[in-house]
Specification:
3-stranded antiparallel sheet
Amino acid sequence: MNVRIVPQLVLAAAAALLASQASAEVLYKLIDKNGKVTYSEEKPKNFDGQVIRLDIDPNANTATMPRPAAGANSGEPTAAPARKASNAKKPSAEQRIAAARERLENAQRALQDARDHPAESDMQIFGNKAEACAWSLRMATRRSSISSTRR
């Protein structure tokens, strides 16, 4: 490479870097007549809405990463051992199926118990209470006759 070109390339790269940093430090918030908000890096020329200049301080908007724990230089992320340990504690598919079946059976028993022994708060009565009681008695006898025929 030509020795004269190197300083020119370095100068051009530095100028491009400074220009990109300078353009990133100013944003414009554009609010049109319908209230739609848009952000731009360049000031608009023919915009009939509100334009708000936002000066951004890049030094104020930095994030610091947490330092790794001691002994974390093994090349493996620190969360990986915890993930492996949690995988070892998972129940097998058969155990999950058995637990799901048990929950289903418990729910079916609770539903049947609620149907067999409804509380006053479980029912809403519209109209005459005597008619509702008669209807409830008819339904109970029908249920018992149906359940006796199934056996």
